Each structure stands twice: as C-alpha cells, then as structure tokens.
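User: If you would, consider this record:
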Amino acid sequence: MEADKIYINGTVQEDFTFNERVAEVFDDMVCRSVPFYGAVIDCIAGLLRQMACPGATLFDLGCSTGSTLLELSRRLEDLDMRFIGVDNAPAMLEKARRKAAMFSRTGDIRFVEADITSVDLSGADIIICNYTLQFVRPLVRQDFVNRLARHLSPGGILIISEKIISHDPRLNREYINMYHRFKRQHGYSELEIAAKREALENVLIPFSIQENMELLRQAGFTSVETFFQWCNFASFIAVKPPEGQDG
C-alpha cells in the first residue's frame, strides 16, 4: 500500500479529484482519514448477513478501489450475491480490478465505469454509498436519493456513510478538532491537514445527521436509522417499504 504524500508540502494546485495520483495512495488515505473505516465495514457485513437474501444484487456507488466490495464478497460468500461496483474514475477502477484479480474475486465482482447519478440500477436489492453522497451537489442530492429509492426492489436496503456537520457551532468546532487530532495521530502534518481541507472545500459538502435522514425519509424509506457515528462521521441504513406498503 503506497503511502499518501499528496499534500506533504502543503501546496494545493487544484480542487480534490479522484485522479491517477489519488488512486495509487487511496487505500492508505482512507485508512488514515476516515475514523473506524474498518469498523463501519464490519457493521455493514453484519447487517447484510442478517438482512440480505441469498442471490441479492448489491451496487456500490462510488466504489473507488473496491475495498468494500472485496471485503463483503469474502465475508458473504455463502449468500451467492452479485456485487457491482460503479465509479466514474478510470484510475480507481483500474486499481479495483487489479485488487479483485489479486484476491481471485473477478468472478464475484463486476466493475462499471459510469456516472453514479445515471447508471442502470436494474435489479438492485442493496445499494451502498460509502462517503459518496457528500460529493453529489446539494441541489440535486434529493433527486439522487429519490432515484436510488425508485430503483431498489421492495424491501431493499440503502446504506450510506458520510462526513457530517453539526449545526451547533461549538460542537461542530470540537468535532473538527477531534478529527484533526485523529489525522495527526495517523501521521499527517498540520500542513497536510490544511492543504487537504482546502482542496476539498468546494468539492465535499457535508450535511448534518438530521438533513441526511430527511433526504432518506423524503425519498420514501420507512425505516431510517444511524448505525454508527464518530464525531463528524456517521453511517445510516434505510429500508424501502415492502410491496403494497406505503412509506
């Protein structure tokens, strides 16, 4: 795993983008930038173990280098599920395919290069958007979630993980301080932290827990809950009503 040194000099030449340079260090970047990343995947695997039907089709929108799909396909192998990873970054998908081949998972997982807002989601029983929705422009975010709800099968599951904000100014500041402490503990310098924050400023726009849950409820999901939170990161599960039942 190549170490993330993209912002080691504290310089920002462009807004953050999922290019080839980022793809090569992305796995290290995620481990050092997303608190309890592995624990969230543990929770997702446990929930799907209990709730997914054998033969279900799972889409991971914004799959990046495929780490989530690789782990889920390994842990849920006996459920004979179809795993489809979707991303619009060729460099990310190239690395995802290399990893799938390395771990002999090319028969379990298919990767598709496409825009997640328009990709064909036919047959979706489960959709995962891990740290993806925050990159969808706020003005179209509700429409995007509505589309996911429409394409999910009755009783289908949507799982979302996001960076979040608090509308309480003091708590929001304390959460950010905790997050920066986390990044320092994982080897990032103050220069790197500041540069990464600047690069993401116009690209990653987080909502609060309440705003994310309202998106899901407005889309018609009946059961909507958080299943994990660490300061300014949270994960949600939403269940579409079974056929014949209203939201």
